[in-house]
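Predicting holo structure, magnesium ion bound.
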Amino acid sequence: MIRLVAGRLATGAALLVLLSLLVFVGVDLLPGDAANARLGASATPARLAETRQRLGLDRPVLVRYADWAGGLLRGDLGTSVSGTPVSAILGGRVANSALLAGLTTILLVPISLVVGMWAGLRPGSRRDRGVAVASLLFVAAPEFVTAGLLVLVFAIGLGVLPAVSLIPPGAGPLDRPAALVLPVLALLLLHASYAVRMIRATIAATVRAPHVEFARLNGEPPRDVVRHAVLPAVLPVALQVWLLTAAALVGGTVLVERVFGYPGIGEVLVTAVRTGDLPVAQALVMVLGAGVVVALLAADVGVRLSTPTLRTAEQPAPVAFR
Amino acid sequence: MRWPGTRVASGVLAVLLVVIVVGPLVAPYDPAAPVGLPYEPPTPQALLGTDALGRDLLSRILDGGLPMLGTALAGAVAGSALGTVAGLLAAWWDGRSGRSRWVEGAVLRPLDTLAIVPPMLLVLLILTAFTGHAGLVLAVALTGVPLSARVLRAAAAPVVTRAHVEAAVARGEGPAWIVGRELLPLVAGPLVADLGIRFVAAIYVVTAAGFLGVGPSGTDWGTLIVEALPGVELAPLLLAVPVVLVALLAVSVTVLADDAVRRSRAVLA
Amino acid sequence: MTAPGLVEVRDLVLCAGGRTVLDGVRLDVAAGEAVGIVGASGSGKTTTALAVLGHLRDGITHVAGTVHVAGAPVLPGRPPRGVGYLGQDPGASLNPYRTVRAVLTAAGGVRRDRAGVDALLGRVGLPAGLARRYPHQLSGGQQQRVALAIALARDPGLLVLDEPTTGLDVLARADVHRELASLRAAGVALLWIGHDAETLAANVDRLVTVADGRVVASGPPEPARFTLTSEAAPAEVVLAASGIVGGYGATRVLHGVDLHVGAGERVAVLGASGTGKTTLARVLAGLHPAAADTVTVDGATLHPDVRRRTRPQRAALQYVAQSPSEALHPRQPVRTALHRPLRLLRNLRGAAADAEAAALLEVVGLSADTAGLLPAELSGGQRQRVSLARALAARPRVLVCDEVTSALDPGTRDAVLGLLGRLCAQDGLGVVLVTHDVEVAATADRVVVLAEGHVVADGPVPDVLGGDLLPGGVPSHLVELLRPDVADPTVRGTVNVVPSRRAAVTAPTVVSDDSPPTG
Amino acid sequence: GSPASAPTVVGSGGGGAAESLDPFISGTPSDYARNWTVFDELFAISDGNPLPRLAVGVDQGDGAFTVRLRDGVTWHDGSPFVADDVAYTLRYLASPERPVPHELTGFLDTAQVQVRDPRTITIPTLQPVGDPAMLFAGAGMRVIKDGATFAPGGTAVGTGPYRLGAFEPGRQARLTRYDAHWDGAPFADEIVVISLDDPSARVNAVRTGEADYAADVPFTVARTGAGGDDLEVRSAGDTQRTSLGFVMNTTIRPFDDPRARRAVRMLVDRQALVDRVLLGYGVTGNDLFGHGARYFDDTVKAPATDVAGAKALLEQAGAVGAPLVVRSAEYEAGMNGSTELFVEQLKAAGLDARAEIVGVQEYFAPDALAATHLLTFPLGPFPLDVTYARSAAFPTLALNDAELKTAVATAFSTPDEAARAAAWKTAQAVMADRGNWIVWGLADTLAISRRNVAGIEVRDSAKYPYLGKAGLA
Ligand SMILES: Nc1ncnc2c1ncn2[C@@H]1O[C@H](COP(=O)(O)OP(=O)(O)OP(=O)(O)O)[C@@H](O)[C@H]1O
Ligand SMILES: Nc1ncnc2c1ncn2[C@@H]1O[C@H](COP(=O)(O)OP(=O)(O)OP(=O)(O)O)[C@@H](O)[C@H]1O
Ligand SMILES: [Mg+2]
Ligand SMILES: [Mg+2]
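Done. Tokens:
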């Protein structure tokens, strides 16, 4: 297990390096650059050239990459083309987005499990079909549309929840929990629907599995069948779904953040990419990519631990030690 | 699971497809030209009212189905095709124990790299690089490839060890025959299902791109949704019509794709 | 509990989507009686058995008739108490997420303590040490017995058994048969489903035959038939393999196996599940990497990798894989299956290939129209013949057949084995018949017994397979041979927990201390 | 206004997280709103004219000018404001470490600045500057304290009406009243400047009572109504309108021919664009940028719409059927919409026009600009110096015309008020006659506000109002 984790982390790191190079060179090849974006309408050729020189954009791309990578190794994320250090820009924002993603995931776990079970234990029943169609609808609607509707109903209509996430300086989103409700809800409706669909399907399939039939036919009470035979079979799949959702939420909160003006990485991400702010874009690619690597690894480890065949694969059968 | 879902979904999809394909021909007005003032309510002349620039919503809806479908389909097909080839190759090389694994690595490592970029970031990067529909197709395809490859690889894994595949190897068939004729027909079910999911994701990417300000202009339904957002209070139909159409399309396609999964033995067995 | 007329099935009609699955089944089991049900695949055996348990699978509807167990109606959905059930596939029946102890502690709706669990294990002949294992850490026979223990946990008066030994190798099968025999002796009624009338006959009081959802015959079973044949010793050696070593990763499966086959000779390779028979066959076929060039055909050494063998070499040794449903591509018609080897190995195309394909089909006893059919449109026996025809298309000198009959019903099996015999006699073809089935092995000229990757016996059929029969039709002499604890003491204690490629057949390569103390 | 807290929502046009305490890095509207309140400038623009702030006057010299500074001004930390602070500021913004060269460094020789006494400073120029006060006002130069640096997480000390309290880039800045401000104590105890990227989010914040004022809100809000009895939609007024238009590239065909330029100006239906893109919240333009600035010539009329005449002109110019690419990016709301409609108008007149919508970072990429025929161009009510300097320096935007060049040069360099006015008049006449601008509309700048919010002034731009005198009535 330790070897697995170490190996996967090493591969993940290697992939991140590859990725950073791809993104660096790729973004550099885009038409326009940070100097253009920065100067806008005042970008006279002379100013443009001078700005390029000041930002170091006139140097070859690989030299800049090496510079950036060297800085990264020293723990220096570089300086945004706006002149602000990247670490200052990202600072609390990464944590805020992670909070949004984390809260959504935490809520998603019990909700998707309960709803998925409720529907999946009676495959084909009325409630099962109802859940299937409702979840499909939520999956089909973009979350910013859902979010907009939520604002219209709960903030502007009923006035019970804030329409925007105004977090005072020095405070975190947790200091204003009300501001988190709608963003989390919007994310939850989309992602939980997906998780419910997957979990429902697995449960529906497991209910028909031979080991469940066997237990039932040999008189095991229904509650025990669900607890001992159905749930453990669903867990590996559910774990995968949850962690993959968490991975998708890393950087996937952009749209909702924008609707609510939530102080996460969403706006930074969009601006950095759109203005060719390479140091910021790079840092985000690294942070988000690392997040995904960890989430995927956690998913694999979780599945391994929750599946006896995999868990025991590396150790001899218990009795062999006697 | 015998419920009318599949039949209803096929019906809805058929109607939508007719609207999408015939739409551009029957649109009452030029979808790009203003016919009135912005945000006019429905009138007999403009049955669904006008949009933010005074253009006829109905004409735009009718005109925008085809580009939307085209983009989504092209992206989905491209992503699925790439994923399928990669997945099958990987499964094939993985399935042969004791043989060199580098090909599998060469196929899967780049995809893994893609897979660790959050999709929204990937979409932003790609659409900043390539504006317009070509960029969207690429974005849809690239965000889908890693997952498609994994799905197809999983589906193909039990197939590659089948005796008829080995028989083909033993009698000296080449890789084209083995991947194309021995493996591909047996993963058709997962392939179709994957295609359905890609298609829904494609529609989503189009809308999300528009929302982030990197989408193409035009009448694409996804673009219509985004354009409608600022004026939603003035003209709710502007948002409601494309959202409902996209939802119907997505739901019917998903239902049919689910059905394909259910019927495909390779996924369940 | 043991009142007469324990099970009464009267005119039971069950339908599935408009099709009649059971068409007026009438069946009785008296207390303490052992009744066997046989019938072709799909004839409704499983459906009947489940109906006795008050269970209808999804999609099956109750149309008419009654099922009473111990006087109480069980249909619809009122499962009887005191009936134990043992499914077809022990590997799949056990909850893969719980240890044996966890399952047995609460089995049958009663909580029992450690001693209770151990007692239950003892009843099915398993040591208490097994309780800490997960199902996948058990051999097929052990799994089957744990499942039996769960069924026994209810203290049943009746056990419903649905093909309880299909997935098991000779050893495990003998063990299970022994357990069932002792239960029967203890007065438990058995409703036992199998597709092999001969094996069942030895173990039940009465045999019921089902066909197309109807009971067509009922009566006392015929005694077991066991024929041993032996033909004259052959002359020239076509296949010679010596010191074959092979394995998976670090695990070695074959420890220097020698094998030779003469022209026109049928050599059976017999062994328990997981001893390396398939590995051996695949090494011969060049599909599995072997340590060295150890295989010769007609004196010429073959490369260990089939792709590096020359075309004539590839043609000379042909491999027929285990499952007929996997051996043929489900989307390719028989014609394609035959044309490809003709084209690649014999350079025949077009009309010439068509003619040759028709001739091949005739050789294996199929009509020429078969060429246009898809595998799904063929019966299992026909499919197996097509596989054989495909192998014969290469004009081989040696045919390596891996369990070519294990998925077939007895009639079809005999026909395929007969065909092989004919080919040997007529064309001087050498045949390697890999099997775990003693009856199949008995049809060969010579038997090579494999245990733990070692050849433990090699000789004419009567020498190896003669002697007393154990319950289940296994020669006791063979069981002695296959008991590996005698074979190699150095590997004792390392239980092989490599998950089997096929879930149904999980067996330890070495049976350690906690293996059944039999009896 | 009464001394109450007045949280203000200000839009942030993207990049909010990169907001900086450094007033010379300001990029977003909330950056400006905050820095404009914390720091004071030498001269501000008020109704198009320079308004003395930290400076009280300028004396022209030979190749240099001398700025007289205000007395009795103190920094937020209590120290007095002196000429050394101005000298430091000039050195600071000329520093080669800064990521972007400051516009002023093209005019001033910052290395040779001489501090005469604490109230007087002499600044040499690199090229003649006719109206230094206007130059400073147009460049919006704030003064920072001698030795100031702006590390993230630190604070900023200014002389402005509000001190900086807690601040989180891209989120909020809390500004507290500086009672010792030289211009009289401000009204509100505290002002909160909030950064919100999404226009709907800004409106929603005011509608749900989480903020009192949001600048730069979409026209649809005015159409829908403010959404509450205590709310109103405010317009910044005529002089604060943004000029929206297209610039024709005179370096390539067909717009190297003045007839083709004139023809297109005769084709465009300005009112239709105002009605649709601006929802009627604005008026038609007269094809000159600079509306609202001093010397702007609003007597000039745009050519009357005359499709037949335009076609004849195009014929003469040999431009019939020439492909026209209109480049646009949505860096101001309505840019892409106006481009789409404009292209439709050109098409309706039989021209082969096509919109090319790109991202903001590549919009001003020189190569691509050089190849397009028309590009969208919005411009706020900047001084004419800024407007003409910008367009002259950019080959694709510039009009290569001798008379224009002379007039603009004179207007830049002459210290004589009358001569300057005459020069600007000439320059604008050239643009009106054969220029390459199509300024089709003057867009209102709208804000949504609680009714009791008072004292919000517009100085540089209505998109980031001056909050120094704001309060709740
Ligand atoms: N759930 C079901 N829905 C529809 N048809 C079914 C279902 N289960 C079984 N059948 C059909 O009922 C018939 C009898 O099936 P059953 O499983 O009882 O056969 P069997 O005699 O046990 O065969 P085998 O020897 O292959 O196990 C078959 O034709 C089968 O296709
Ligand atoms: N791909 C594999 N990787 C690792 N071990 C394997 C693999 N395939 C088979 N084995 C192990 O190798 C041993 C021999 O397997 P093999 O398939 O040759 O047995 P067999 O004699 O054909 O058994 P059966 O009667 O079940 O077909 C078994 O212990 C099996 O678990
Ligand atoms: Mg059965
Ligand atoms: Mg085998």
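Residues C 16-17, 21, 39, 41-47, 57-60, 195 surround adenosine-5'-triphosphate (ligand 1) (CB under 6 Å).
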